Amino acid sequence: MFIIDQGTGQGLTLGQRVTVFRPGATPDAPVTELGESVAVLTEPGSATIHLRRAHEPVKADDSVAIQRP
């Protein structure tokens, strides 16, 4: 479980999938998808996500992207 700084104010809804990724070291470097999670608790400015699968350990400075339908 992780708490993220995106929530209903950014369009995240309960049960929505969220991709966890690591930005590249430089602006031109590709991002690395780390895993997939699902929102289990949502608030206006934050959410709790459950990491369902991960290819690598997730770190505090990794990022998330809300998957849109």
Number of domains: 1
**Oligomer classification:** single chain
Strand content: over 45%
Biggest sheet details: 5 strands, antiparallel
Which percent bin holds the helix content? under 10%
Please report the distance between the alpha carbons of the first and last residues. 23 Å
List the uncertain runs.
none
What coarse outline follows from CA principal-axis ratios?
globular
Following the backbone from N to C, one meets helices and strands in this order, namely: EEEEE
Structural class: mainly beta
Radius of gyration: 12 Å
Number of separate helices: 0
DSSP E strands, number: 5
Strand order within the widest beta sheet: 1-4-3-2-5
- Average pLDDT works out at 94
Describe the structure.
The chain is globular. The mean pLDDT is 94. The chain has one domain (2-66). A five-stranded antiparallel beta sheet has the order 1-4-3-2-5, with no helix packed on it. β3 and β4 (47-54) form a beta hairpin. The protein has no helices and five strands. The protein is an all-beta fold and 69 residues long. The protein is 0% helix and 46% strand. The chain has strands spanning 2-4, 17-22, 32-42, 47-54, 63-66.
